[in-house]
Specification:
Structural class: alpha+beta
Number of domains: 1
Helix content: 25-40%
Order of helices and strands: EHHEEHEEEHHEE
Radius of gyration: 18 Å
Number of strands: 8
Largest sheet: 4 strands, antiparallel
């Protein structure tokens, strides 16, 4: 998941036509860097979602950091105005027991965690793994609240639980 930092300020300061121009230019920059089989879409507002098939988390983080750095260094020209933007990102990987909605939710939760920990930071702060183990327990640096172990998992089994229960 990709989100432009402080995008509302662009719209409020320069107008919606400038904001729209920034979104189009950003999409073009992102698409040019991604591989032909990667998919990029606008997820809503100033958020984008990039699907990187056949990509492990390490390479996804590397790609995301390259995108973040590329965009931060780019000078956007919109309606005769030069703008610099930054973005925050959240990355998650899909595994065999995960539903597509859980993948999006995990990446979105991690995106907002990146924003809370300080926008424009490197991949080890903006990117968090959200790979979900056999009991739907995420593994890695951060656990999105919606995907944490079920509260009713026995304490002795919470880290290795195979109950496959989801927290509601």
């Amino acid at each position: 998941m990709i989100d432009i930092d402080h995008f509302k300020q662009i719209n409020d300061t320069y107008g919606h036509l400038t904001g729209d121009s920034v979104l189009r230019n950003l999409a073009s920059i992102l698409q040019k860097r991604l591989r032909p089989n990667d998919k990029l879409g606008r997820y809503g507002g100033e958020e984008f979602c990039a699907i990187l098939p056949e990509t492990n988390l390490t390479n996804a983080v590397r790609t995301a950091e390259e995108l973040r750095t590329l965009v931060a260094a780019h000078s956007f020209v919109a309606e005769g105005k030069e703008l610099r933007i930054t973005m925050s990102l959240g990355a998650a990987t899909l595994n065999g027991v995960m539903q597509a909605e859980q993948l999006y939710k995990a990446a979105d939760d991690l995106l907002y965690q990146a924003k809370r920990t300080g926008r424009r930071v490197g991949p080890f702060l903006t990117m968090r793994t959200a790979t979900i183990g056999p009991c739907r327990r995420p593994t890695g640096f951060a656990i999105p609240p919606a995907l944490a172990p079920a509260a009713n998992c026995p304490p002795r089994r919470r880290d290795s639980c195979s109950c496959r229960r989801q927290r509601s």
